[in-house]
Amino acid sequence: MKRWDLIVIGTGLAGLTAARTAVEMGAKVLVIGRGMGSLTLFGNTIDVLGEIPPGADMATGVADWIAVHPDHPYARMGWSGISEALNAFRELFPSPYTFDSVGRGNSLVPTGAGTMRPTYLLPITMTAGAGMSAADTLIIGLRGFKDFQGDTVSLDLQCRGVNLSLPRYGLEGLTALALARLMDEGPFRESLGEAIRRQMAGEKRIGLPAVLGLKAPADVLKTLETITGAKVFEIPMLPPSIPGTRIFHRFREFLIAKGATFLLGNPVIGADVKEGRCEGITLQNPPLLTVYRAERYILATGRFLGGGIQADRERISEPLFHLPVLQPESRGEWFRERFFQPEAHPIHRAGIVTDAELRPVDAGGRVILKNVRAAGSILAHHQMIEEHSHEGIDIATGYLAVRRALAS
Amino acid sequence: MTQADQIPPPPRHLPDLCVRCATCMAVCPVSRVTPLFPGPKQAGPGAQRFRLASQDSVDDWIELCSACRLCDTVCPAGVPISELNLLAKAKYLDERGGTLRDWLLVRIDLFGELFSRFSAIVNPLMKKRAVRWLLDKMLKIDRRRNLPAFDSPTFRQWFRDRPVVTNAAGRPRIAYFYGCFTNTNEVDVGKAAVACLEAYGYSVSVPPQRCCGIPRLGVGDLRGARKMGRRNLSLLLPTVREGTDIVFSSTSCGLMFRHEYGPLLDLPGAEELATHLFDICWFLLNRHEEGQSAVRFRTLTAKAAYFAPCHLRSLNSGLPALDLLRFVPGLDIRMIEAECCGLGGLYGFKKEKYAIAEEIGKDLAKEVARMKPEVILTDCEGCRMQIRHLTGIKVLHPLQLLRDVLP
Amino acid sequence: MDLQTEVLIIGGGATGAGISRDLALRGIPSLLVEKDDFTSGASGRNQGLLHSGARYAVTDPEAARECITENRILRRIAPHCIEDTGGLFVSLPEDGHEYRANFIRACGVAGIDTEPLSAREALSMEPKLSPLMIGAVQVPDGAIDPFTLVVENARDAESRGARFLLHTEVTGLIREGLRISGARVKDRITGEEFTIAASQVINATGAWANEILSLAGLSIGIALSKGSMLITNTRLSERVINRCRPPASGDIIVPNDTVSILGTTSLRAEDLENHAVTPEEVSFLVDELSRMIPAIKGERFTRAYAGVRPLVQTAQAGDDREISRGFALIDHQSRDGLEGLITITGGKLITYRLMAEKTADFICARMGLHVPCLTHLQPLPGAGRGHTFQDRLLRLRHQIPAFRRELLCDCELVPREAVDAILREGKVRELQDILHRTRLAKGTCQGGFCVYRLLGVLNERRKEEGLGGSNRILKGFLEERWKGIRPVLWGTSLKEEELIESIYKGLFNLTPEEAATADGGHP
After folding, report:
1. CATH code given to domain C83-144+224-308
2. Chain C residues within an 8 Å CB radius of A44
3. Domain termination site, one of A217, A235, A253
4. pLDDT tens digit string along B140-171?
5. Distance between CA atoms of residues C411 and C445, nearest Å
6. Which residues of C touch B22 (CB under 8 A)?
7. Which of A132, C39, C83, C213 is an S-S bond match for C388, by CB 3.0 to 4.6 Å?
């Protein structure tokens, strides 16, 4: 059986970043995902650290923030490491579908709930949202498309909103994917553009649900902007996320073209650990159990949703390598009394503790497995949901884990 | 009828695993093109909460699931969505009663042998508009769909009648499961498989075999599928037990053997067979990676595109054909970035589903038009039929191309 | 706006709505005020069990007889609110054969039909039951939908002239000497305050009885008992499953539509409005009930909730009007010398009609009227229309192919049309009202997806009225949802929670800064 240079477990942004970094360094890579990973759910923009105020310089902001959060995953690589990893990510998305920051820091972009959300790198289809104001923006909802409620968005953003029906296309009951597919086709987006133009009352920007094409988002954007004469932007909405699926597809396309092997759809259920090293992992592909072996492993299995950590009624555990999980004392302390509280629920900071090279360590700080590194949201000491740091942590730690792994 | 012939109720905890995240909604090819099917999230674990063994089926949309199984491959929670759908479909069709069309279609393996013998008559007949009109009206087999022509002699006859391989003694043995379609409609795929295996130094045998039964699953006939499974297991297990591995060139047959005989149909011996059964390209690729008896292909300067069939993704052992094709010097081989050809086996032949299958396939055709390959390669006969139908470009099994560049 | 009525009923639970209907059928005008929505108290926070009375047969034969009588009446007048599941009383080895024999005998005395089953027979009917059981007894238990029951009572009463004011809170009782002559009330949504004059005021507020009485400087002896319950993601059994032992905590599993409800605990309650289910209660219910159905240990729970039962303390109630040990009708004229006010409290959901009958009898007597009660004879409106699980299955079967349009809820398959119809009726006043009237937010994701969509539907209207700030409603909902799911967050439910939190706090950036209060989602 083939022996790989590196096996990445997990196909979220952390795992994909790790795999891509390894492939670029010439490694033979096997990527294993139980499912499609969180990009398809929440992937839209690249959040790095929402706590840095919009407009403030990200480099100094993050550096200062790390100084007071020395345990945070970002402290492992500092801003220079984070930005190196982010640049590598951006290189994967050449023109026309690029990811850029607006200015040198965070910007605020509208969401499907009519709030503004801080984020760092925006795909070209969302950039115009960053500069919107209530007065110059028209929000377009699509009648019968339930995962984006245009009236909620326009009501809360206090701008004008219109719900469009395109009866010819029978939009009622269509899914995000079905809409994105229609958008990829010229005639549909042209008629949508015309329908929007007829509704405009001098607005300079148009916000739409994030379904502007799966294959050709930049073309969709161009068509709509040409017809309406306004800046057009996508607004993130309920899962599944089309923009996130684009990111996933781009990574998969790249990895497969570069010869990486991609296994999707079965869980890794066991690891063969000997003398402080992982010798192989077992994939459960019913009725078969298949062992895959590599020199190095990246554990990027995410948190509860991804299955990287799990909880029973008593405690939180890491099911694959049985690594120690930093966690609150008892179940009663996992969550706070109210859903919305200024402090994140303590369980969010739970996770795997590592050394500077992202190797999991025990309570005494000793490395547990020499050739296993953890990356992404499974790590302890962050609160990615409240911090708005999910993608940043995935990219920075996925990148660092592989750089360190392949250097060893 | 034994108890195992009953439609098994799906394990109750399965819908409990679903976290309602909607990842499956980002891949389902059917809900991508039509609102008539609500997508895996609702049709699978969602509706499962409403299904009671003692109650009649509540949802007839289940029939629109094409059983591509892509949802299973992306679910982060490990819900076997397509299995839930399949069992629900079986129950629904059982209540509704089978149709003559389904009865005929799933027995195509039997007619195939006959048609093959009379291919000189059958093939022109099936192109006749009157015949297609009749099939369309009476059996609801869509007349716009090209019916595959029958080859004569069959693969099995060809293999039996071919000259004895002289240097076979002492070579490692391998058995080949060719599948019905290769046997009667694409004999050349079988010939290519044999040529490749022999070029890699194997002595090839063809054990007795029957239809794997996947068409029966497709129409919800679990009993029939089990019957086929039991027959195949009794025909194939002796080969495995004498120490010979089996390779298959048809992805769907392989999926049926490896995943449905065991976990779904619970047939004794399924696991033993699965352990010794390999995708033929995966098998050959591993010879390269082990460095033993690897073949050095001749140069072929061509622009080719590879399409990964859904059922190959479900087998989840990578894209071995693509990796194998990369060993051909000069071959510009790229992956077609498209999900599902739409045919879904017999699904796309059915009049009421033809339009859905066509619509799904359009996305693939668009991608092909953009890539402009000279030849398209894909492991599954259904995909080959559909891509030919959609693009008019030459479509081969990867082994057919590899056979032509063997040293 | 000041109003006037003959009888003012305070409390929109089963008792209040039942009284309203009873009076209406006797031709007596009434007006009912409820501070939230129908069934916001114990009527909506119980296990939805249509008692056969068997549970009380051994320990309280009188209550048992009351239950079976009402059980039969309800099956007649409200078949559409009942799923006739039947029930089993399961004996585990520690429960013993002796109690089982007593139980069967006592049921016979109370007039409750029983059918003894061997362990094997019971297992074939309910395969999830513990194989350790020594036997079971089948009884005519069932599942009841309290919300529909109450709404149908109200609808019928309304069609006969009764009036209802929801989200209207009593802020004071109007006292004229030794007589209560009405109440001061406040609309909790608009803030408008007004008075309602009435010749008789009925305090049917259940556990809140003393809150109302305190407005008149009175109090009665009731103990508040918190009962906590757990809801499973999928239905565990076809029938109600009881433990065949003296009534105790953690011994009933009631199937309810697509789910099962496990209950209950019994703890002295301190706070009427806030009663969180504790981790200890959850563990107790899981451990205790898994003795009957072992699979419960690994079950996925979608929610926990608690209700507060008002238990009448017999000694203190000490009133000759005490009807049974289950409930109490207290005439404050004879007890406290205050005319025009009566309190009806205690009891069980299944005896709501009887409580209403006795209350209306009393009112009639006071008014010198001799009109007989009709509620045990006259079926509720919509009695021919199905509301049960089976009916829903059948309706889905017919509807889905034709309708296949916008389903707001993917878990419970609630179409947008269902919400539009409710909005057209024009009676709902906030988001939770709509959630009460549909199965939205009752499925696996507990409203994680559908409430966002529902809010969009509401915002179509809100926009026309120039209302804003719908995020507050969303946050209010999520905060309310949190109360139910926090106690059951482990395993798959915890995964679900990460998904929902990632959507609302991450993707939608809803933050705690603006407090989630006030505007409750005025449609």
Report:
1. 3.30.9.10
2. 507
3. A235
4. 999 999 899 999 999 999 999 999 877 778 89
5. 7
6. 449
7. C83
Q: Which domain holds residue B106?
A: 100-139
Measured between alpha carbons, how far is residue C305 from residues A36, C82, C493 in Å? 34, 22, 15
Q: Please, what are the averages of pLDDT over each run of 10 residues along chain C (523 residues)?
A: 94 98 98 96 95 94 94 95 95 96 97 97 96 97 94 96 97 96 96 97 97 96 92 94 95 93 90 86 96 94 94 56 66 95 95 96 95 96 70 65 67 86 88 91 92 93 80 93 95 96 97 55 46
In three-state secondary structure terms, A317 is strand
Which residues in C lie closer than 8 A to residue B38 (C-beta atoms)? 404, 407, 410
Say which of B31, B76, B271 has its CB closest to residue A35. B76
- B64, B79, B233, B337: best to mutate for the A interface, most A CBs within 10 A: B337
**Sole residue written with tokens 């399965």:** B14
Q: Do B52 and C298 touch (CB under 8 A)?
A: no
In C211-346, beta strands by DSSP E: 222-232, 240-243, 252-256, 259-263, 267-268, 301-312, 327-331, 341-346
Number of domains chain B contains: 4
Is B372 at the interface with chain C, CB within 8 A?
no
Cis peptide before C15 (omega within 30 of 0): no
A133-191 pLDDT, tens digit each: 999 999 999 988 999 999 999 999 999 999 998 777 766 778 999 999 999 988 999 99
Nearest to residue A250, comparing CAs of A408, A91, A115, A138? A91
Residue of C471, C481, C494 lying closest to A115 (CB–CB): C471
Residue B292 lies in a domain: no
Which residues in chain B are closer than 8 Å to A307, comparing Cβ atoms? 76-77
Contact criterion met (CB below 8 Å) for A266 and A37: no
Does C234 sit within 8 Å of B15, measured CB to CB?
A: yes
Distance from CA of A389 to the nearest CA of C (A): 9
Q: Euclidean distance between the first and final Cα of chain B, in Å?
A: 53
Instruction: List C-alpha distances in Å: C76 to C70, C149, C152, C371, C387.
Output: 10, 13, 14, 22, 15
SS3 content of chain C, % helix, strand, coil (to 5): 40, 25, 35
Same domain, A8 and A55: yes
Indicate the pTM of the whole model.
0.94
A168–C contact, CB cutoff 8 A: no
Q: Which residues of chain C lie closer than 8 angstroms to A155, CB-CB?
A: 459, 462-463, 467-468, 470
**C contact chains, 3+ CB pairs < 8 A:** A, B
